[in-house]
Design goal:
With about 290 residues, this protein is an alpha+beta fold. The strands form 4 sheets. The protein has a 5-stranded antiparallel sheet. Strands 11-12-13-14 form a 4-stranded antiparallel sheet. Helix 9 packs across helix 10. The radius of gyration is 19 Å and the shape is globular. The chain starts with a strand and ends with a helix.
């Protein structure tokens, strides 16, 4: 490794100033579980940085606020704090589903949901959950603040909408309505420390057994996580009807654009999109009923 400078700012303004400097190539670090590996193994993929800016000590990036408007998560909040907070997981169990799957317990002690989406890996477990829960990302930078929908944040493998000097400050998830449920499932060849062959995040809102709203997102089947727009075809249909599940499963299968590699073929991954979509819908339905 080459010599890399390190800075630990205590404010967003200071972090933005460091990251936007024209004299250095810099990268922000929250948990560091991805960045440190990249610095050692393939620094050229992240621009061969001269400076690492540790944003873990900035108060706004450690915010956890749950109120009638929803949940605001600072981008540096470690995952274990999320899945161990029952006030969060009672409303957003899909966050528990996904954050408890990322790496092992040691990784979850450092890794953050904000870091997961900023790393922009197509297989990122928490990203489909954020998309399905209608999350909004707050970004600060040299030109001020802006908000981006979670489904628009990732632009390619390892690439995001973040511009020079910008950092992800927080993620806001709106409060769920009555009779709402959400779920995340993935398929992996092994039980521990593996990457999703396919991941599916689902949220629904019901009126009795009728689907009022639905949002489904996929991981590991495209260059970025995929929002299944055709899932809306099941709105107005009964969640108890197998045909409804079939329509949603087909929508996910058709939205997927996977590749064949050592971990799965195109046909296998598309089949998994169908299967996991049906399963997450069933789980979300049960959770919407209070189970």
């Amino acid at each position: 490794m080459k010599w890399i400078d390190y800075a630990s700012p205590n404010s967003i303004k200071e972090a933005v100033s460091l990251l936007s400097s024209k004299n250095t190539v810099s990268r922000a670090m929250a948990g560091g579980t991805d960045l440190i590996v990249q610095l050692r193994a393939a620094p050229e993929r992240i621009g061969n940085p001269d400076l690492v800016v540790d944003i873990k000590n900035i108060p706004e990036l450690n915010e956890v606020t749950l109120n009638s408007k929803g949940l605001t998560l600072g981008s540096a909040v470690p995952m274990y704090k999320i899945y161990n907070d029952t006030s969060i997981t009672n409303l957003f169990p899909a966050l528990q589903d996904s954050t408890s799957l990322v790496g092992g317990i040691q990784i979850q002690g450092r890794a953050s949901v904000g870091g997961n989406i900023c790393n922009s890996a197509p297989s990122g477990d928490t990203i489909p959950t954020l998309i399905s829960l209608n999350s909004t990302c707050k970004i600060d930078g040299p030109n001020g603040s802006r908000n981006i929908k979670a489904e628009d944040f990732c632009t390619g493998p390892g690439k995001t909408v973040l511009e020079n000097g910008e950092i992800l400050v927080s993620i806001h998830i709106p409060a769920p309505g009555k009779q709402s449920g959400n779920s995340y499932l993935r398929f992996i060849p092994r039980n521990e420390m593996d990457i999703a062959v396919v991941g599916v995040g689902t949220s629904i809102s019901l009126d009795g057994d009728i689907v009022k709203s639905v949002k489904i997102a996929l991981a590991s089947v495209g260059p970025t996580p995929i929002l299944v727009t055709d899932a809306e075809k099941i709105i107005g249909k009964s969640i108890e009807d197998e045909e409804t599940l079939k329509i949603a499963g087909e929508a996910s299968k058709n939205a997927a654009t996977p590749i064949t590699d050592m971990r799965g073929t195109i046909e296998f991954r598309k089949h998994l999109c169908d299967v996991l979509t049906r399963r997450t819908l069933k789980i979300a339905k049960e959770r919407a009923g209070g189970n």
